[in-house]
Amino acid sequence: MTAAPEHPSRASIKDVARLAGVSAQTVSRVANGYVHVSDALRERVLASMQELGYRPNSAARNLKSGRFHSIGLVTFNITALGNQRTLGAVAEAATRAGYTTTLIPVSDPTGGNLAGAFGRLQEQAVDGIILLMSAKINSPHDLALTDGVPLVVVDSDPTSQYTLVDTDQEQGARLAMQHLFDLGHRRIAHVAGPDDSFSARHRAEAYSRFMREHDLEAPEILRGDWSAASGRAAGESLLGGDHPPTAVFVANDEMALGLLSAAHRRGLSVPAQLSVVGFDDSPDGAGFWPSLTSVHQNFAAVGQRATAILLAMIDGDPIPENPLIPTSLVVRDSTAAPAAR
Amino acid sequence: MTAAPEHPSRASIKDVARLAGVSAQTVSRVANGYVHVSDALRERVLASMQELGYRPNSAARNLKSGRFHSIGLVTFNITALGNQRTLGAVAEAATRAGYTTTLIPVSDPTGGNLAGAFGRLQEQAVDGIILLMSAKINSPHDLALTDGVPLVVVDSDPTSQYTLVDTDQEQGARLAMQHLFDLGHRRIAHVAGPDDSFSARHRAEAYSRFMREHDLEAPEILRGDWSAASGRAAGESLLGGDHPPTAVFVANDEMALGLLSAAHRRGLSVPAQLSVVGFDDSPDGAGFWPSLTSVHQNFAAVGQRATAILLAMIDGDPIPENPLIPTSLVVRDSTAAPAAR
DNA sequence: CTGAAAGCGCTAACAC
DNA sequence: GTGTTAGCGCTTTCAG
Predict the structure, then answer these.
(1) Helix (H, G, I), strand (E, B) or coil at A175
(2) Is A10 helix (H, G, I), strand (E, B) or coil?
(3) Closest-CA residue in chain A for B57?
(4) Which nucleotide is closest to B14, CA to C1'?
(5) Tens-digit pLDDT string for chain B (341 aa)
(6) CB B158 within 8 Å of CB A64
(7) Chain B from 172 to 211: CB within 8 A of any A CB
């Protein structure tokens, strides 16, 4: 244990070269795994690297290559399950591709903050940006500021001009509805997420379309804010009415659990008297009683796809197609056939 | 609107200098806000910057300064509420200080992976590392690899040799226990988190100590894995016994909600027949019925403190003291005096 | 197979 | 006030 110096300045390529008695160039070649180096020299160089604890300085590499080998991740809400998962998948995919992930927090997705975030990202060192939206982009103006930096948006308006990756919300919502329909439910309600969320809107639209296609009368859609508390409130209002539904399709699991809690409170037995389907397949949903039937989103695939597309854009490679990731339905204990009336 | 070139190579300081008819140095001075530039020149330079969309190249700056202005964040479990919050706070604090946050995902906290993560971090450009532990560091050996890079560990063994920031687990657990005790509860059970979590251990130890100090007989401690499902399982076993407790202190909110669900299932009324206190003060806990009394952790403060300490270490400044962040108790509807027997 | 030279974009140090 | 020079650590190019 030697006393650590104040700033143990890292060994440079020159130091290694000097110690090994070779040129800096040869060290560089060894560091980058080029073949045209004699075994004897390679050994000497590697030994010297080891001894000095040499690490290539990425700032210098970046300067030379004009690339930063880093992608910027802008997100407004790290608390949302989907964003976490996507974020994790992006970070892993980026790491595998030799890129780091730079996190840019934005507390409030207004134009100003977004602009600030992008400005910072560009002053910082990123080759591309992934935007994890939980709310809408106000206007193209907001993004004009990316200004040449490749950009992929996750969870946004599919009609937007930006490259987009997302869960296939429509397909997922249909999965949930078809399940309830097949069980025999006809009075099916929907608790939607906030209006400024594209995924919430897509799910709500798919619900309405399904009801229309099957000539079912759709009760008014209730809106929550993704939280358990709002789901519970929706449940209170939904189950307190005259003609309560026999089934509810809830736009995410947290609200579904809140609704379940409202049902328990009213002494309603789930699934005997009420069927509930959530969206997300969150671990919490599986752990409650009754365990929640839910639409599983493949966030890992979303993150991977977004990363793959971004890296392709950065490299000028052809862009992978099909940015909509399908869902699957996980049937558990919160759904059953409606009670005979 | 001109057609964007394939790679719109960013304007360099030279380009700006040429356009403005000044030296690169002058551009640099303007960019860095130095005063000793005539207003006329400053105007010209700023105009040229604007026209070319100039952004300083951080790679070059980093190379020159020997700093990366970036902190690395290593985390194993981005899904845990506490880690998310801390992560967000770190990112914000870092941003405010002019640093970016580089995310390094580690799927599995074994020595090998940790070493890999640190290796990557050092090849990458970070001036310091924050380690968000959800599980224990196996041995000092794991961290030997940071090798001169300043390191702050969040949520770990307080006896460790590394700089540490954490919630004051002991104080938080006592808050919960004192609340139940003051309500009149004497048969108080504890559902702990996994054994490899330091916070879980601290809370469990504080529980045991409290019971001992008050001459109360402590039922055997049940262990969960932080999940709602494990809390529900603990609840089933706890409430099915001969002498069920009148109150339970649960090591996190998710497990507490699982336990609540088990209580509902058995037809036990909360808080009339059973009081429950959680830990974390998660939004979900507030949204359920009954809403959960819980120990509030100030994750934002933890993240800020960790960042402040790390930046001080990087700058060689004196290290802020008092790395233990106090908690507060949020009393809601899941606790009440025990039923008279 | 190996080395020497040049330069990536920026700024500290030194002229003028 | 402003310009010139040099060099951060690395890799591409060109000589040997």
Answers:
(1) helix
(2) coil
(3) A123
(4) C9
(5) 333 334 456 789 999 999 999 999 999 999 998 878 899 999 999 999 999 989 899 899 999 998 999 999 988 777 777 888 899 899 999 988 889 999 887 766 555 566 666 666 656 678 999 988 755 554 444 555 566 788 898 876 666 778 889 999 999 999 999 999 999 999 999 999 999 888 999 999 999 999 999 999 999 999 999 999 999 999 999 999 888 999 999 999 999 999 999 998 898 999 999 999 999 999 888 888 899 999 999 999 999 999 999 999 998 889 988 789 999 999 999 999 998 75
(6) no
(7) none
ω into B290 cis (within 30 of 0): yes
Closest alpha carbon within chain A to B4 = A148
Q: Which helix (H) or strand (E) holds B309?
A: helix B299-315
Which residue among A62, A124, A286 sits closest to B229, beta carbon to beta carbon?
A286
Q: Which of residues 79-138 of B touch A (CB under 8 A)?
A: 79, 81, 84-85, 87-88, 91-92, 95, 100-105, 107, 120, 122-125
Q: Reading across the β-sheet that carries A163-167, which strands appear in turn?
A: A324-325, A163-167, A151-154, A128-132, A70-75, A100-105, B100-105, B70-75, B128-132, B151-154, B163-167, B324-325
CA distance B213 to chain A (A): 35
Q: How far is the CA of B311 from the C1' of C12 (A)?
A: 24
Looking at residue A266, the DSSP 8-state letter turns out to be T
Window 248-277 of A, Cβ < 8 Å to B:
254, 257-258, 261-262, 264-265
Strands A222-223 and A275-280: unpaired
Rg (CA), chain B: 26
Number of separate helices (H) and strands (E) present in chain B:
13, 12
What are the structural domains of chain A?
13-56 (1.10.260.40), 68-166+299-325 (3.40.50.2300), 169-297 (3.40.50.2300)
Of the residues B52, B77, B84, B281, the best mutation for testing chain A's interface (the one with the most A CB atoms within 10 Å of its CB) is B84
Q: Does the C-beta of B52 come within 7 A of strand C?
A: no
Nearest CA in chain B to A77: B88
Q: Using 50, 70 and 90 to split pLDDT, how confident is the model at A113?
A: low
**Closest to B177 in 3D by CA, of B214, B202, B230:** B214
Report CB contact under 8 Å: B316, A92: no
User: Which pTM does this prediction carry?
Assistant: 0.88
CB of A242 closer than 8 Å to CB of A270: no
The alpha helices in B124-168, defined as continuous H runs, are 140-144
pLDDT at A67 over 80: yes
Q: What is the pLDDT of residues A38-56, one digit of tens each?
A: 999 899 999 999 999 888 9
Q: Is the dihedral of CA B11, B13, B14, B16 positive or negative?
A: positive
Per residue in A248-262, pLDDT (tens digit) is 999 999 999 999 999
